[in-house]
């Protein structure tokens, strides 16, 4: 039996979306049945009738006019409050204006409840719209509908939530996101939609379903935005406070506060409008009018990008410089998420993944052909992204489909496009695309809380409790001794006391620090899409980094190859002219480059391609070697027939090519040339088919027909020296095989029975500032972790270079070695993993230690042993359920896949760590998103950054360089010995003509910008003046560039994106995070002290008849706002301190400091008040702060200057200045108060004003309504007691700051 139409009881429906927890069905009430209309209308009628009866004396016994007026005012207030609650709280609106609907056919709205931390509830209309579109009659994309059919369209219940449409699947009675059904096997998808829309009628029907391919970001009107802002709960509360002050005759103060609030809201509205304009400008909407060739109705025709529809077959092409000038665009963005059917494309996906290297995209038929027989696995974005072009990414280069009359595409039978572009199938448009997901994350920020939101709310509740006590005291005193005080005035004071807990400027105060940090980050080239994460950066205690492209340079250098017959001797051939033809062939042919993008691609491919001087003869033909005197056959052109692209899970790539040359059997002149006989050489035919492969040595080892002697020891020895080792392999395909069979052979079959031809040794040097930045983080007590996909030994070597591994002993947790020593205990013989000690003195040997569980990892870490783990060992730890407990102790994770990188972040967070993850590639996306502070490096110009402490002040970078480091661009190498300035792997032979000096060539940890001893000693540059000038010019240009950071620099990869490749911005993010965190806690602390002092002054002193004048309150409010603003402008210090900032509001430091400081302020206030009462002139009355019932004695909140009031105000100024001066936290996280000049001057000005009011007559006294002169020595006593109060608070604060932040 099918489930009920509502999918459950009470109008609750299921929804297939992880960001929505539930939805409820509702029906709009009739106007007369709405709970905010009829009940209040009846009340108003009754009250008006009562008022009229009173006026006409119909009911003499009726209430007095004052009571009737109060009742009308109360009813109106309740009506307004209920209307505002309907705006603020959707659940209240659902009760008041809607009723539950048990069936979708009776509902006209749904209440959407998002998942935790994904926004707030909202009510959206439920509509009936055309949803289901059929390609052929009866062939529907979406099954399960029994609604009215209109041709090829069907009507369904839909609603739109955050720019996404949801439809009702009647088979499961579940709402689902409306999206093109590409979750099916690619061959079926291409067969069904490979010819696009056959008729214009079908295209028009599809347009009614999918809408336009645009980001509909309307520019809101200023007036409407301002009204919305003013209806927010906090603004209404602020206006209510202003009304209370007006009732208490604080006209100037109330108007000043109201103007300040409105001004602040106007600036917020203006900023929202600017953000909207930037979004509209930067999401590529300017290219919507550019035409795209679309295949509709059996022909190619130009169609605007905004009219593209899911299911369209389109042609995409890159543009050259001339076309860029004509069109006025720097490059062409992909207009939608598209499945590549024919041709090849190279796209930059930095916006999507943070990967700065352009990505190769191949047609989907390659995926279909390589699938196992009978494999009907649906298309998945994560697995098949190699065949998908994503909207917003930049199309760098393209290749047209093959020479056949129809485009390649595994069933897509369409003519070749006339513009020569790639043939693609549109999958998603508009907000449904990957770029649309980024847009929605910006438009609907799902987590606006700060790092201290929960504690902040609890802190305000505590302050509210204190205010309740103070207000209760006022009421209690009135009930015991009314003394003729009016109830209205007492209730007014009670409400003022209660509302004073949250000052009106609180939202401004708390947002100032975050906004200031955002501005500073943007100036440094750092873009933040989630500002609430900035305080988390201040809490960060663990920093994780990718290796290749993040810590090390993206530009690799091929240092040489090791031939198979040299493995035992471990002899490197640096001159590739002496290498075998097959080694050169693999390097020159096995890559993902194209003839149009030989300068853009994977750094490994570029390095190998450049090392053998390969070149493209035509689109798919490569001359693999153009070196002087190469091995025979190495220069023979090769035609690339198929590419099996690199995958992080497989750690290899391969190609099938046709070699246009005689058999290579005689090519034995090169080193290792005798290997050709083993590869099947010997044919005299001119065309031979070869499989060429390269990849990680461990991976290629499993594909070899025979593993040469010394293979494992050789590649491990080079990995221990920090080299990136790539195994090169090849296999000749039997001559009997037909070319058609070769084009259909699965990857698994093609990459079997390979023969090793050598090892390629690549040099991957550290970036110039990586070691310095990591040393800075290590000195500030941050735990450093490397998470990489590289080999464990190479990763450990680089980790030692840059300081991640600092212990003298390192253990690697890996699978049991197939060769070498075995663990000492019998227990470990049945264990799949064990510890391997990496001994630098004997790099070819390792001792094993049994793995005994996660507790052993903790003990080893406490013994100051650096722990590392391989991806294979992580898999075993997951199987045992020990991954979370063991991984938190690891310093290096090597040979990891993207899922394992994210697993490490999850393990750290489960242990309560606050993690920063920095990466630059697609493999890091999961870890970047899961960490609290994810930093994606987009490449390009490096941001202007502050040097760590210890660097010379004159030139942040470039004035002096490391001995042995490569010279700056364009500058000749001035190193000793001709070539000593070039960094080279320890143990590698020198290039021709260069003396062999291992020590001078060693890549060691001393190559840091901050080291001043040994081989890393700093030396003056020969041409320092010109180089300094160039650096300064570059920094000025970069500063101008960083100011132009736009929303296009945002990335789905992480909340922080950096335009640059240096990890130095991580330091900037942590600095700004600490400054923001410290400033926020300062504000709460000062707020608490002001609340405590205010609770006393507005209760006890109010009862005594003391009140502040209007001018006095206004002056204090102006100074307080100015001080809060100056406090938020504190700059972070360049050096990160090992002392962590306090992160909790409810900490011993903050609570004890507040109590002791309040005790000092309270003593000061009581002493000064009592002295003023004692010394006041005879006959002077204390100002009456309340109304007396009965006429002439009523002061009616009037104010008259007197000694007691003047003294209380002077004390208030002193304590306010003391609170800001003493509780300002400068060193060690931000600039001290003497460096924050505006803050210093504001505090001094307030103290000077208070002192001037205390000791002498001045125009300020009259302006602030303070007595011209205080009696006796009262003024001097106030100054002395203020100094003592300041000294006591300063001593208490500085003593308590030394308490640990934990």
Structural account:
- The chain has 1302 residues and is α+β, with helices and mostly antiparallel strands.
- The strands form six sheets. Strands 1, 2, 3, 4, 5, 6, 7, 8, 9, 10 and 11 form an eleven-stranded mixed β-sheet that branches.
- The longest helix is centred in the C-terminal third of the chain and has 34 residues, at 1064-1097.
- The protein is globular.
- The N terminus is likely disordered.
What attributes does this structure have?
41 strands; 11-stranded mixed beta sheet; alpha+beta; disordered N terminus; 39% helix; single chain; 1302 residues
Shape: globular
Cα-atom Rg, whole angstroms? 37 Å
DSSP summary: helix tally? 40
Runs in which pLDDT lies below 50 for 5 or more consecutive residues are 1-9, 132-153, 369-374, 403-411, 446-451, 663-685, 819-830, 841-846, 943-1047, 1186-1196
Q: What proportion of the residues form beta strands (DSSP E)?
A: 15-25%
Please outline the major beta sheet.
Answer: 11 strands, mixed
Kindly state the mean pLDDT as a whole number? 75
Write the layout of secondary structure elements.
Elements: E1 12-16, E2 20-28, H1 38-55, H2 65-88, H3 90-97, E3 98-100, E4 109-114, E5 122-125, E6 127-136, E7 139-140, E8 149-150, E9 153-161, E10 164-169, E11 174-177, H4 186-193, H5 200-210, H6 222-230, H7 233-247, H8 251-282, E12 291-296, E13 299-304, E14 313-316, H9 321-327, E15 337-342, E16 344-348, H10 350-353, E17 359-361, H11 364-370, E18 388-389, E19 394-399, E20 422-428, H12 434-443, H13 453-480, H14 487-499, H15 506-523, E21 526-528, H16 534-539, E22 542-545, E23 557-562, H17 581-589, H18 603-611, E24 615-616, E25 621-623, E26 638-647, E27 652-660, H19 675-678, E28 687-695, H20 697-701, H21 711-720, E29 724-732, H22 739-744, H23 747-750, E30 755-763, H24 770-779, E31 783-787, H25 792-802, E32 810-815, E33 833-838, E34 846-850, H26 854-862, E35 866-870, H27 871-880, H28 883-887, E36 892-894, H29 898-910, E37 915-919, H30 925-930, E38 933-937, E39 960-962, H31 998-1001, E40 1018-1020, H32 1024-1042, E41 1056-1058, H33 1064-1097, H34 1100-1103, H35 1110-1128, H36 1148-1175, H37 1203-1223, H38 1237-1255, H39 1259-1263, ...
Parallel strand pairs: 1-11, 22-31, 22-37, 31-36, 32-35, 35-36, 37-38, 38-41
Antiparallel strand pairs: 1-2, 2-3, 2-4, 4-5, 6-7, 6-9, 8-9, 9-10, 10-11, 12-13, 12-14, 14-20, 15-18, 15-20, 16-17, 16-19, 21-41, 23-30, 24-25, 25-26, 26-27, 27-28, 28-29, 29-30, 32-33, 33-34, 39-40
């Amino acid at each position: 039996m099918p489930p009920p139409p509502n999918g459950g009881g009470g109008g609750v429906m299921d929804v297939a979306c992880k960001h929505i927890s539930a939805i409820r069905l509702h029906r709009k009430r009739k106007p007369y049945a709405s709970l905010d209309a009829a009940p209040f209308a009846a009340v108003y009628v009754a009250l008006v009738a009562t008022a009229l009866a009173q006026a006409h004396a119909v009911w003499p016994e009726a209430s007095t006019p004052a009571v009737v007026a109060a009742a009308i005012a109360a009813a109106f207030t309740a009506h307004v409050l209920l209307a505002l609650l309907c705006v603020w709280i959707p659940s209240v609106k659902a009760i008041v204006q809607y009723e539950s609907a048990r069936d979708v056919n009776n509902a006209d709205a749904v209440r959407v409840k998002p998942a935790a931390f994904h926004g707030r509830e909202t009510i959206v209309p439920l509509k009936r719209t055309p949803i289901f579109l059929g390609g052929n009659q009866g062939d529907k994309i979406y099954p399960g509908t029994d609604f009215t059919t209109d041709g090829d369209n069907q009507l369904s219940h839909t609603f739109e939530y955050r720019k996404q449409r949801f439809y009702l699947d009647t088979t499961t009675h579940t709402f689902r996101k409306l999206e093109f059904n590409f979750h099916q096997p690619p061959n079926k998808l291409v067969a069904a939609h490979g010819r696009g829309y056959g008729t214009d009628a079908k295209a028009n029907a599809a347009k009614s379903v999918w809408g336009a391919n645009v980001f509909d970001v309307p520019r809101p009107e200023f007036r409407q935005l301002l009204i919305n802002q003013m209806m927010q709960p906090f603004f209404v509360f602020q206006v209510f406070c202003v009304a209370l002050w007006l009732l208490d005759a604080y006209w100037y103060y109330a108007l000043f506060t109201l103007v300040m609030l409105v001004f602040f809201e106007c600036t917020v509205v203006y900023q929202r409008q600017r953000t909207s304009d930037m979004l509209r400008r930067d999401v590529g909407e300017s290219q919507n009018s550019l035409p795209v060739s679309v295949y509709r109705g059996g022909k190619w025709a130009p169609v605007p990008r905004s009219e593209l529809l899911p299911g369209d077959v389109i042609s995409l092409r890159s543009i050259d410089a001339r076309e860029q000038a004509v069109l006025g665009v720097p490059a062409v963005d992909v207009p939608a998420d598209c499945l590549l059917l024919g041709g090849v494309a190279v796209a930059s996906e930095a916006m999507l993944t943070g990967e700065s290297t352009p990505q190769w995209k191949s047609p989907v038929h390659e995926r279909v052909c390589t699938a196992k027989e009978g494999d009907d696995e649906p298309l998945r974005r994560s697995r098949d992204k190699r065949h998908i072009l994503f909207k917003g990414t930049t199309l760098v280069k393209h290749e047209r489909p093959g020479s056949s009359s129809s485009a390649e595409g595994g069933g897509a039978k369409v003519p070749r496009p006339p513009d020569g572009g790639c043939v693609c199938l549109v999958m998603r448009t508009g907000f449904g695309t990957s770029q649309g997901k980024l847009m929605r994350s910006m438009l609907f920020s799902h987590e606006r809380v700060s790092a201290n939101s929960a504690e902040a709310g609890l802190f305000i509740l505590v302050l509210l409790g204190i205010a309740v006590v103070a207000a209760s005291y006022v009421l209690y005193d009135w009930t015991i001794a009314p003394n003729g005080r009016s109830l209205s005035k007492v209730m007014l004071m009670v409400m003022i006391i209660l509302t004073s807990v949250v000052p009106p400027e609180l939202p401004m105060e708390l947002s100032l620090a975050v906004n200031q940090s955002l501005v500073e980050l943007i100036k440094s080239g750092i873009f933040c899409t989630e500002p609430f994460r900035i305080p988390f950066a201040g809490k960060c205690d663990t920093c994780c980094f990718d290796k290749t492209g993040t810590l090390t340079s993206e530009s690799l250098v091929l240092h040489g190859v090791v031939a198979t017959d040299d493995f035992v001797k471990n002899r490197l051939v640096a001159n590739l002219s002496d290498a075998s033809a097959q080694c050169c062939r693999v390097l020159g042919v096995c890559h993902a480059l194209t003839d149009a993008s030989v300068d853009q691609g994977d750094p490994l491919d570029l390095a190998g391609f450049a090392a053998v001087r390969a070149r493209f003869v035509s689109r798919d033909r490569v001359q693999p070697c153009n070196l002087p005197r190469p091995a025979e056959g190495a220069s023979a052109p090769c035609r690339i027939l198929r590419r099996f692209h690199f995958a992080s899970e497989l750690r290899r790539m391969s190609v099938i090519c046709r070699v246009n040359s005689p058999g290579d059997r005689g090519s034995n002149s090169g080193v290792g040339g005798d290997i050709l006989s083993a590869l099947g050489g010997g044919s005299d035919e001119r065309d031979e088919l070869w499989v060429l492969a390269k990849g990680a040595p461990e991976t290629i080892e499993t594909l070899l027909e025979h593993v040469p002697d010394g293979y494992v020891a050789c590649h491990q020895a080079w990995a221990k020296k920090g080299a990136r080792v790539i195994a090169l392999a090849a296999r000749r395909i039997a001559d009997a095989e037909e070319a058609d069979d070769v084009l259909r052979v699965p990857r698994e079959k093609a990459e079997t029975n390979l023969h090793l031809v050598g090892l390629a040794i690549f040099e991957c040097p550290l970036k110039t500032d990586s070691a310095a930045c990591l040393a800075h983080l290590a000195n500030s007590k941050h735990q450093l972790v490397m998470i990489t996909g590289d080999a464990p030994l190479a990763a450990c070597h680089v980790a030692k270079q840059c300081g991640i591994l600092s212990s003298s002993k390192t253990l690697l947790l890996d699978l049991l070695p197939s060769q070498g020593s075995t663990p000492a205990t019998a227990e470990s013989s049945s264990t799949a993993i064990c510890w391997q000690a990496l001994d630098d003195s004997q790099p070819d040997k390792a001792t094993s230690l049994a793995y005994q569980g996660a507790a052993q990892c903790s003990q080893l870490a406490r013994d100051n042993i650096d722990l590392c783990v391989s991806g294979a060992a992580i898999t075993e730890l997951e199987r045992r359920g020990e991954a979370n407990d063991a991984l938190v102790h690891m310093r290096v994770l090597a040979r990891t896949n993207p899922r394992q990188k994210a697993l490490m972040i999850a393990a750290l967070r489960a242990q309560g760590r606050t993690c920063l993850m920095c990466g630059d590639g697609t493999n890091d996306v999961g870890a970047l998103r899961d960490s609290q502070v994810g930093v994606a490096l987009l490449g390009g110009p490096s941001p202007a950054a502050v040097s760590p402490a210890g660097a010379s002040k004159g030139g942040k970078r470039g004035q002096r360089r490391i001995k042995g480091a490569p010279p700056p661009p364009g500058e000749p190498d001035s190193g000793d010995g001709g070539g000593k300035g070039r960094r080279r792997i320890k143990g590698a032979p020198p290039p021709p003509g260069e003396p062999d000096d291992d020590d001078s060539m060693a890549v060691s940890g001393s190559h840091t910008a901050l080291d001043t001893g040994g081989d890393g000693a700093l030396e003056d540059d020969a041409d320092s003046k010109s180089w300094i000038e160039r650096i300064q010019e570059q920094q000025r240009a970069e500063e101008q560039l960083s100011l132009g950071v736009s929303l296009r620099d945002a990335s789905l990869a992480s909340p922080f994106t950096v335009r640059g490749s240096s990890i130095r911005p991580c330091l900037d993010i942590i600095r700004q995070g600490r400054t923001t965190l410290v400033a926020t806690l300062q504000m709460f602390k000062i707020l608490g002290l002001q609340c405590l002092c205010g609770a006393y002054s507005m209760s006890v002193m109010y009862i005594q008849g003391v009140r502040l004048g209007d001018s006095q309150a206004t002056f204090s409010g102006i100074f307080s706002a100015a001080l809060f603003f100056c406090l938020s402008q504190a700059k972070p210090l360049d050096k990160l301190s090992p002392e962590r900032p306090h992160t909790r509001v409810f900490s011993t430091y903050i609570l004890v400091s507040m109590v002791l400081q309040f005790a000092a302020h309270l003593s000061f206030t009581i002493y000064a008040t009592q002295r003023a009462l004692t010394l006041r002139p005879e006959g002077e009355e204390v100002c009456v702060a309340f109304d007396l019932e009965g006429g002439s004695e009523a002061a009616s909140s009037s104010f008259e200057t007197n000694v007691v009031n003047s003294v209380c105000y002077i004390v208030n100024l002193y304590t306010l200045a003391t609170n800001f001066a003493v509780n300002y936290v400068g060193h060690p996280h931000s600039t001290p108060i003497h460096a924050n000049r505006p803050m210093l001057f504001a505090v001094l000005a307030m103290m000077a004003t208070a002192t001037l009011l205390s000791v002498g007559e001045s125009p300020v006294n009259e302006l602030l309504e303070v007595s011209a002169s205080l009696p006796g020595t009262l003024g001097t006593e106030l100054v002395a007691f203020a100094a003592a109060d300041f000294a006591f608070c300063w001593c208490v604060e500085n003593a308590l700051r030394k308490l640990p932040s934990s």
